[in-house]
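[stage:ingest] chain + small molecule (zinc ion)
[stage:ingest] validated
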Amino acid sequence: MKHKCPICKAETDSAVHADFPFCSERCRERDLGNWASEKYVVSEPVFDEEDLAEGKGDAILLDLNNNLDNPNDTEH
Ligand SMILES: [Zn+2]
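[stage:predict] done
[stage:export] tokens:
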């Protein structure tokens, strides 16, 4: 089974590398170090308020269109 070292992107092979999927113990420890220092943790969610408002507007427009095209909406 072949893979790429998540740290240095070197090709690794589960049959060859004892530290698979890492190419070496050094890379494995570096990965652990990344986790320990929370390098992988996104500190802040990437929310753009304008994008959210825009998305909401699209949803409302879609709802209006659905109502207009809805043949069941003739009861009132
Ligand atoms: Zn590596």
